[in-house]
């Protein structure tokens, strides 16, 4: 086990931190769950990934790396921030410290913020599953926004390879606020 008090840790391996993509206008604001297509963030494997945190603990025998305290991940125009992030990688398939880890999944918690361009999402926690190509953001209030368009629920499920997305209300109602000026003119 290695404990590194890292304020900056750079990995140039492929870490597909998938994101919220372009939010499309959806109808049915009173529905309990809203489905739509979302464009996944276009992250390329050739762009370096920068990770900053107050502390990094690498547990190679458990095939995981734990970043804690003011975690910030940046690749291109995409930024992910959280209080903590645990990266799980395949055993025997490289390591995080060498930059060649084969990432299975990433768990984030403690005020998750995801941003790319004009799109943003906030949640209490999230999981990015690289094997299943899914990501889930959860919280008492999961908020997605693009400009003045705002979507609120408690859980966002996204299939990264297809862009299919579902926003759940968890017993309440999905809330949507749309800016009429954002609609495409035909």
TrEMBL record:
A Pfam cross-reference name: LptD_N
Any Gene Ontology biological process: lipopolysaccharide transport
Keywords on record: Signal
Residue ranges of domain Organic solvent tolerance-like N-terminal in the record: 50-163
Cellular component GO terms held in the UniProt record: cell outer membrane; outer membrane-bounded periplasmic space
Classification via InterPro entries: LPS_export_LptA, OstA-like_N
Domain of life: Bacteria
GO molecular function terms listed in the Swiss-Prot or TrEMBL record: glycolipid transfer activity
Keyword NAD: no
Official protein name in the record: Organic solvent tolerance-like N-terminal domain-containing protein
Species name: Ensifer canadensis
């Amino acid at each position: 086990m290695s404990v590194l008090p890292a304020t900056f840790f750079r990995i140039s391996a492929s870490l597909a931190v998938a994101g919220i993509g372009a939010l499309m206008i959806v109808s049915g604001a009173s529905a309990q769950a809203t489905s739509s297509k979302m464009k996944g963030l276009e992250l390329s494997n050739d762009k370096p990934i920068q990770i900053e945190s107050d502390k990094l603990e690498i547990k190679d025998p458990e095939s995981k790396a734990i970043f804690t305290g003011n975690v910030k991940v940046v690749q291109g125009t995409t930024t992910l921030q959280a209080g903590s992030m645990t990266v799980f990688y395949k055993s025997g398939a490289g390591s995080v410290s060498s930059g060649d880890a084969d990432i299975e999944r990433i768990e984030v918690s403690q005020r998750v913020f995801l941003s790319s361009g004009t799109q943003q999402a906030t949640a209490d926690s999230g999981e990015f599953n690289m094997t299943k190509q899914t990501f889930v953001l959860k919280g008492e209030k999961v908020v997605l926004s693009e400009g003045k368009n705002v979507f609120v629920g408690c859980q966002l499920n996204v299939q990264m390879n297809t862009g299919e997305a579902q926003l759940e209300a968890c017993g309440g109602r999905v809330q949507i606020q749309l800016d009429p000026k954002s609609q495409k003119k035909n």
